[in-house]
Amino acid sequence: MAYLLTGLPCSGKSTYARALERTGVTRLCVDEIVHARHGRPGKDFPGPEQPALEAPIIEEVAAELARLLRDGRCVVLDHGLGRRATRDRYKRLVTEAGGRWRLIHFDVDHDELRRRLARRNAEPAYGVLTASTLDWMIDTSEPPHAEGQEPPDPGLLDPR
Fold this sequence. Notes:
Helix content is about 45%, strand content about 15%. By secondary structure, it is of the alpha/beta class.
């Protein structure tokens, strides 16, 4: 089983993925690998460099996801999957590796996302995502429609 998480930054994907991880699901997180290798965007490197830095990591994570599924493991992909083409690619990858997928969509009000972003940006462990970048992501994301998506299990959501 592969849990494919889709939603904007600060929508609760990582909190949910960590909750699944506590149940024995293997978590793959692109952002954590980027941070380990390159630091935090907006703090250790300019935010606009992130797509180029994360591109090879995304490919590594996709290969690891397929390997884990072939080995019979249950995996959660902790990454935004904001475009339909990207979601379709991961669904194919999961199916071709012999797994099944669940597309979990985190639909959070945009004003709430902005409030969460302000709190997150104040925490030293995170990089800085600007409000204008979040607004751009809101404008360019493609929320899933008729893609087999489901809401997150409320029992795994952060009670905040």
